[in-house]
Amino acid sequence: MGTAAILDENFALTATLSGGNWVRPLDNLLDPTVKETTARCVSGDPADAWFDVVFSSRTKWDTLVIAGGSIHPKATFRLTWWSHPTNRTPADVLEGGPDTPFLRVYPSPDRRKDRSYYAGNYWSGGPTVRDLAGKTPQLLTRPPRSPRCAALRVEIDNRGAPLDLGHLFVTRAFRPDWPHNWGMVLEPVDNSPVDVTPGGRRIPDSRPAPVRKTVRFDDLTEDEAMRLHDMGLRLGKSGPLLMIEDIGQTRHQWRRVKLTTLEDGTVPVTQNEGDLWSATLKLLEIIG
After folding, report:
1. What mean pLDDT is reported for the chain?
2. Distance separating alpha carbons of residues 21 and 187, to the nearest angstrom
3. Which CATH number, 2.60.20.10, 1.20.1250.20, 2.60.120.260, 1.10.150.120, labels domain 9-171?
């Protein structure tokens, strides 16, 4: 098992967003919601569905997430790193650019040998509509190379479908030296009230179920524990964060990594002995 990545500082909140053709403003990407407040591009074509993130200063980031909206199961995206806040000449490209191919938002959730030949994704790979049912659409990427840049361009090809985007999170991960314990729990939280008729029939009022993720770390240094303690005090129950349990296992990240808040609004930390500390993270998915 590889080490975890905890994402709690969003550089987009101090950046300026511009570009593309959006009928709902790009600033909506800064609201920590995935459905209620979105940016919208009617065409879903990359000629319109693009925007620049101009950072307040040259920024080194390693993870980008766009959570929520209406990202198509076969959508693709492309990133470009710029050395200058406003100049967009070929000489200002640090990485990516117009000659770079678009990448799939969703990687294949399984191996071809494990798929049914009659499944709609046997040749193309990628999740099916059935795979994505009940989940919040999400673009998550950790580029193999991400140079320090003044601006970042995001282009999305939504296969011609109208594109809504929820919350933009651009960050540099905090990675404890040791992995979390075995026994991580992913638990959908049922929000659907049920009426029961006199005859005993159950009639649920079906509502989306957020996923609760519970993870424990038993091998933290004091510095790592204090950083998690500070994070809990800073974010409370409202500040968004994400956690990638194992950065080396990417195949199911689209299933397991969610935009969340701290369910209890805190991160309890415990000194076990000397410089050895432990902490438990209880994260609740943002679905509204």
Report:
1. 91
2. 38
3. 2.60.120.260
What 3-state DSSP class applies to 50? strand
Instruction: Provide the residue ranges of all domains of the chain, joining segments of one domain with +.
Output: 9-171, 185-285
Mapped onto helix, strand or coil, the DSSP state of residue 244 is strand
Name all contacts of 254-258 with Cβ < 8 Å and 24+ positions apart.
Answer: 254/106, 254/107, 254/109, 254/127, 254/135, 254/138, 254/140, 255/109, 255/135, 256/186, 256/213, 257/65, 257/138, 257/140, 258/67, 258/136, 258/138, 258/211, 258/213, 258/283, 258/285, 258/286
Could you give the CA distance from residue 153 to residue 18 in angstroms, rounded to a whole number? 10
Under the banding of pLDDT at 50, 70 and 90, the label for residue 123 is: low
Distance (Å, whole) CA 180 – CA 216 = 6
Cα dist. 53→13, 149, 153 in Å? 10, 10, 6
Q: Is 5 left (phi over 0), alpha (psi -120 to 50) or beta?
A: beta
